[in-house]
Write a structure and sequence with these properties.
This protein is of the alpha/beta class. The protein contains 17 helices and 14 strands. Strand 7 (about 165-170), helix 8 (about 175-180) and strand 8 form a beta-alpha-beta unit. Helix 1 crosses helix 3, helix 9 (about 195-225) packs across helix 11 and helix 9 (about 195-225) runs parallel beside helix 12 (about 280-300). The protein is globular and about 70 Å long. Uridine-5'-diphosphate-glucuronic acid binds near residues 248 and 254.
């Protein structure tokens, strides 16, 4: 078993750190956010992720994990240091890797030749190779590899324990082999490659998935226009093994902390390399259009204008089973409605935002509402009886941007159901 440090106690650092601790490794996790470290030391998980609180409790009681505000304290004599800090959109589409660079500048001079520095954060192709060259030029002996992360929020522990693959990129064969050995507890194929290809695999995976979803959203819109049903169509195409049935649910466009930033970043990477990635640009445009089309449905349901109209928004997180609202399509939808004069009252079982009035009960959001917009696929919404929805709201239109409600039951309750691509 190894001694490992994880820098950044966010979704990736905390999940992978506690995950490695649960496999028997000795783990130290650091973060510059002192409040976050205090909460973790008190046994509290700073965000909602199913199973993580139990894992924190177990690994702490086994003495396998400790937390610190100091990155230098964390890296001491460990075998490998995993950099898991955030790499957000800089605002112009390019990835802001300054947090990774700060950590590298801080810890690399303190590491010796036996320690491996692992870049787990998503960084543009070429970043790790450049880092390797810069550290070599400065005479620092540390080996650097890229091990991108593919977990999903909401099912992060399952994804950590049963990954589809492990990707290890680097040009130091000994470091790559040692990293592969540290991942021996996983029953997954290991792809060893150059650092740049590893980075490309991460961006390509997210960009492909975003493209697939956007294609499905387009199909749903077309289904509506020709009278087909997207649920049947996706079942039919998904049975083709080359296509597969997962990740085919239409929705209000993709959100979260990664698809939006990684798709635009890849377009920028392509631009910088002299390649016009027109397909991916079209995907990004179509994704924005998906929400504008949904707003049109809400506007029609409100009688042609949203000025002064109350809209109930069910869901503010970017998907179900997380409290993460970063780049949430639900919030983006709400903003578009507010921009047209609507009064948005929102509910979410785990997430929150100060952009709209939030209520604790989904039925309370319906009071005086002309339209109900379901924006996040929380299971609890499917369980609310249609007659209760009809009784609580003022208007009669339900726009279901996640296809979670039962159209027949909604219709039988005297409401007008408008889903995505449903006949
Ligand atoms: P996050 O924002 O949840 O967490 C990042 C953490 O790093 C924060 O707690 C922050 O305080 C800390 N941090 C920032 N600078 C630091 C520093 N100098 N020293 C110590 N700690 C520092 O981010 P995340 O969602 O975990 O994502 C991290 C990286 O992993 C990103 O590159 C992201 O693209 C990638 N990724 C994220 C996911 C996901 O599902 N969220 C999945 C795969 C890959
Ligand atoms: C995504 C990837 O799935 C992970 O593999 C990757 O590690 C991660 O990004 C990352 O790099 O951060 P995540 O953002 O947690 O994970 O969420 P997903 O489950 O992929 O959903 C992304 C968006 O697509 C959400 O808004 C979701 O509602 C939407 N979606 C997903 C659909 O609209 N339909 C689907 O069938 C699936």
């Amino acid at each position: 078993m190894s001694s490992l440090a994880f820098i950044g106690a966010g979704y990736v650092g905390l999940v992978t750190g506690l995950g490695f601790a649960s496999l028997g490794h000795d783990v130290t996790i650091s973060d510059i956010d002192g409040d976050r470290i205090d909460r973790l030391e008190a046994g509290e998980v700073p965000f909602y992720e199913p199973g993580l609180a139990e894992l924190l409790q177990r690994t702490r009681s086994e003495g396998r994990v400790r937390f610190t505000r100091s990155n230098l304290d964390a890296v001491g004599s460990v075998d490998a240091v995993f950099i898991c800090v955030n790499t957000p959109d800089r605002g112009d589409g390019t990835a802001d890797i300054s947090a990774v660079e700060r950590v590298l500048a801080e810890v690399a001079p303190r590491l010796d030749g036996d320690q491996i520095l692992v870049i787990k954060s998503t960084v543009p192709p070429g970043t790790t190779q450049r880092t390797i060259q810069e550290l070599a030029q400065r005479g620092l002996p540390v080996a650097v590899v890229g091990v991108p992360e593919f977990l999903r929020e909401g099912r992060a522990l399952g994804d950590f324990l049963a990954p589809d693959r492990i990707v290890i990129g680097g040009d130091d064969p000994e470091a790559v082999t040692r990293m592969a050995t540290m991942h021996e507890g996983f029953d997954a194929p290991v792809v060893t490659t150059s650092a740049t290809s590893a980075e490309m695999i991460k961006y390509a995976s997210n960009a492909y998935l975003a493209t697939r979803l956007t294609f499905v959203n387009g199909l749903a819109n077309l289904c509506e226009a020709v009278g087909a049903d997207i649920v049947d169509v996706t079942r039919g195409i998904g049975l083709d093994e080359r296509i597969g049935s997962r990740f085919l649910r239409p929705g209000p466009g993709y959100g979260g902390s990664c698809f939006p930033k990684d798709t635009v970043a890849l377009v920028r990477v392509a631009d910088d390399a002299g390649y016009d990635f027109a397909l991916l640009r079209a995907v990004i445009d179509a994704d924005h259009e998906q929400r504008r089309a949904l707003v049109s449905k809400v506007r029609e349901g409100a009688g042609g204008t949203l000025e002064g109209v109350r809209v109930a928004l069910w869901g503010v997180t970017f998907k179900a089973n997380t409290d993460d609202t970063r780049n949430s399509p639900a919030i983006r939808l709400g903003r578009l409605l507010v921009a047209e004069g609507a009064d948005v009252v929102a509910h979410d079982p785990h997430g929150s935002t100060d952009e709209f009035t939030m209520v604790d009960d989904p039925l309370d959001a319906l009071e005086d509402a002309q339209v109900l917009l379901v924006a996040t696929e929380w299971g609890m919404y499917a369980g609310i009886p249609a007659p209760e929805i009809a009784k609580a709201m003022k208007g009669d239109t339900v726009v279901d941007a996640r296809n979670v409600l039962d159209p027949t039951a909604i219709g039988a309750a005297g409401l007008v159901y408008r889903g995505l691509g449903r006949a």
